[in-house]
Amino acid sequence: MALITSDRMRFPCEPWKLVESVHVPGDEGTLETLFALGNGHLGIRGAHAAAGDGELPGTFINGFHEIWDIKHAENAYGFARTGQRIVYVPDANNFTVSIDGEVLSLAESTVVDYRRSVDFSTGVYEVSTTWACRSGATVTTAERRAVGFDSRGCLGLELSISADRDVSADITSGVVNRQDQPVEDHSVHDPRRSGRHAGRVLLPLYLNGVDGSLRLAWETAESRQRVAIAVDHWISAEVQPFETAVGEDDSSVRYVLAIHGGEQFRMEKTVSYVVAGSSSDAEDVGEALAAEAEANLVPLSEILAQSTAHYDEYWTTADVSIGGQPELQQAVRWALFQLAQATARAGVAGIPAKGVSGSGYEGHYFWDQEVYLLPYLTYTNPLGARKVLESRHAMLPDARIRAKELSVDGALFPWRTINGLEASAYYAAGTAQFHIAAAIAFAANRYQWASGDDTFGPDLGAELLIETARMWASLGFFGKDGMFHIHGVTGPDEYTAVVNDNLYTNVMARFNLRTAAALENEGIAETERMVWRQAAERMTLPYDPHVEVFSQDNDFMTLEPWDWNTPKSKYPLLLNFHPLVIYRHQVLKQADTVLAMFLQWQDFTAEEKQRAFDFYDPITTGDSTLSACVQGIMAAEVGYNDVALQHFTDALFIDLDNSHGNTIDGVHIASTGGIWSSLVCGFAGMRDQGDVLRFDPRLPAEWEGLSFSLKVQGRLLTVELVPGSMVLKLFSDPDYSAEPLPVNVRDQHITVGVDAVTVPVDDVPVPPPSIFPSVFPTAGLPIVR
Q: How crowded is the C-beta side of 753, counted as CA atoms within 13 Å?
């Protein structure tokens, strides 16, 4: 179901908006994701406010979750014990409008004109619908909504109604507890989707409503987290509420009035959410938390102003401009807008795999945030990157306990979590992915390198590096061959699980050990440093001399090739084949060895990278949304320009075209982070954490240019790539340092200051593809499915 690229009449190309100009039934759930609003803390799906017109509407708060005891069919020592799932908080985006006795509904009423949009430059959602009512009146309803930024727990909604003649209007504004509504559990058929709790989750603590105001509070049944909501209404007519009703699952304010022809009725609905842990005060039944939510209420005009001001500032440094490609430009800005919505005001918290746009993946934090999101945050919002790393650091006590449980030293971070405990019930594709430890160390080192934050490294950064290095040193061992081995792990490619010496894991562990050993830290004994250095120097990197390619693991080259005549309907494989069938074949869910060569670029030669790409790209299904962006970055590096552009385009439209069929569950936030990396690290060829920032650009022939900004060590570096040259300069502004920045462009060392420096960059010739045995006839070419 291609929503965007195949239907330009319905979704016109506008550079700063996503617009739906015609309502077509059937895509509601996916569109609720595409039109969602959020600020990293609070998120509201882009559902129509009219009752009954949503497929999966809802509101989320990052980290607000319920827990349960995981019931394993066959238990074993060390299995994850506590499940965690993001909770739908009570949803205020509900209006029912009845005109002359007819309830207006996209499903039942006659629509004359329709337009819906979300504006990337302001963060404001708008929808306008003109109805031909059964009474003969023509009525136009319009909605606006925005989330706060300084007031991160606030939401503003506006409803306006106008008619061509006098009409009788009956308007109900509601707050609905969607968490405890009966909904089908789709996770039974698709593990990527969020499950549902069997029992009641939100227990009412305080329910109060009077004169159009609602003050409500609930507590989760098991995690004992509390949420309160305060709602106020303002209307343009001098009419008192007809009714204010409260209930544990449905509270509402109702107005009944006449709207005169040619006049406009307006309702402003301001909402404030507050969350907290369980209260130790026996007298507090939620009233105090509701009072706190009330105190935080701000008017709609202020919420709109906060949103506009935030995006005014955001786009001055976060925009990435593509010359001559309007459709790609719109999609890129949508992706960057989603990144802002997932991270801007998260505070010291992780970034869920769906941000706050949906319930997919249970609202968990994975390695996605360190490998796919923190590059973007580090170079556009360093303070935000630091807060994510602070949230990981806060998990260290639980990670140390988990390490002991799995008989290793240091800290073992959970594969998927909200509260710091392992929540992955399937250890082969969960706990066995020890590489999350190296991802955290890598992100911490990148942040320190790129930001120059002197307060981070000595304490938080060093502790993350040291504790993860201790884990690797005890997990691995020196074998009879004198080499250091790491056995029984799963790499990024979840189609090959619990293997020995996964190349990605070993390469990243080597980085972790080397970097920790180089720290100036008195807490590290010299004998410990020596072990880390030796483990890094003797790290096993599986290599097949017959095809001259690094092997994904010790046994990967011995596996049976996958049958590529498998019909398209059988993808993704994880939904159609038992894991044991997949595990015994040479088939990849996502980039693994190729990802290692991107992240540890300095450790491999150009020929090694090209041969690895030629070998692995054709056998990578792309069943993971994390894959296409990485494949595109490495295709660009090895010189396959057309392949790079194809992978980039595939990644860019994963959600906008719903190409993986699960956009309904929320934005694939890690993939949007990968879009930023595709542009900056792929086509501009940026590499970091070496001696200086490096660029090796690969501008697609179809593009007129590519420009972006990077926050680097207190400076703001602007980069403009056009055919034949790259222009770099420091942005002259009191908020940024003007101290010259050393940069390397295609092995040419230059110094960048406030005056523009132009560096000639010739086109890179396309290399001939490596030659493999005939079982790999498509080496170097993307497999189109």
A: 3
Q: Determine the Cα angle at 129 with ends 124 and 131, to 5°.
A: 165
DSSP-based three-state secondary structure for 605? coil
pLDDT at 282: 62
CA-based radius of gyration for the chain: 27
What is the C-alpha end-to-end distance of the chain, expressed in Å? 14
Q: What is the pLDDT of residue 278?
A: 78
**Dihedral angle sign, alpha carbons of residues 208, 214, 219, 220:** positive
- 262 to each of 132, 137, 138, 256, how far by Cα in Å? 16, 12, 11, 18
Inter-residue contact 373 to 51 (CB < 8 Å): no
Mean pLDDT throughout 394-420? Answer: 98
- Express each pLDDT in 441-496 by its tens digit: 999 999 999 999 999 999 899 999 999 999 999 999 999 999 999 999 999 999 99
Burial class of 777 by CB neighbour count within 10 A (0 to 12, 13 to 18, 19+): exposed
What's the token pair of residue 470? 């201790």
Torsion of CA 108, 110, 112, 116, to 10 degrees: -10
pLDDT for the residue numbered 190: 67
* In the predicted structure, residue 357 carries a pLDDT above the cut 80: yes
* Tokens linked to 537: 């120097």
Predicted local confidence at residue 783, as pLDDT: 32
CATH topology of domain 13-311: Beta-galactosidase; Chain A, domain 5 (2.70.98)
Put simply, whether the predicted model's pTM sits higher than 0.70 gets the answer: yes
Helices (H), strands (E): how many in the chain? 18, 34
Which three-class secondary structure string do you get for 493-520? CCCCCCECCCHHHHHHHHHHHHHHHCCC
Positions marked catalytic: 494
Of the candidates 764, 74, 89, 73, the residue with the CA atom closest to the CA atom of residue 363: 89
Find all residues with CB under 8 Å of 90, minimum gap 6, and list them: 59, 175, 176, 177, 178, 179, 202, 216, 218, 227, 229
User: DSSP code of 261?
Assistant: T
* Contact (CB, 8 A) for 673 and 373: yes
Give the helix, strand, coil percentages of the chain, each rounded to 5.
30, 25, 45
Alpha-carbon gap, residue 332 to 314, rounded angstroms: 15
Give the per-residue pLDDT at 777: 36
Torsion of CA 67, 72, 76, 81, to 10 degrees: 0
Nearest CA to 359 out of 20, 68, 48, 55 is that of: 55
Please say if the pLDDT value at position 202 is more than 80: yes
The average confidence (pLDDT) of the chain is 94
Q: In the prediction, which pLDDT does 552 show?
A: 98
* C-alpha dihedral (483, 484, 488, 493), degrees to nearest 10: -90
Right CATH for 319-695 from 1.50.10.10, 1.10.1060.10, 3.40.50.620, 2.60.120.200: 1.50.10.10
Domain-wise residue ranges, the chain: 13-311, 319-695
pLDDT average, residue stretch 638-647: 96
- CATH topology match: 13-311 vs 319-695: no
Beta-ladder partners of 131: 111, 139
CA distance 360 to 337: 19
Find out whether the peptide bond into 57 is cis, omega within 30 degrees of 0.
Answer: no
Chain centroid offset of residue 621 CA:
21
pLDDT for residue 44 is more than 50: yes
In angstroms, the CA 343 to CA 264 distance is 37
Phi, psi of 311 (to 5 degrees): -75, -25
Measuring CA to CA, how many Å separate 505 from each of 211, 415, 433, 485? 60, 14, 8, 10
Structure tokens at 354: 């769906």
CA distance 470 to 465: 9
Q: Is the dihedral of CA 388, 390, 391, 393 positive or negative?
A: positive
Question: Strand runs (DSSP E) across 664-730, as ranges?
Answer: 693-695, 705-712, 715-722, 725-730
* pLDDT value at 271 more than 60: yes
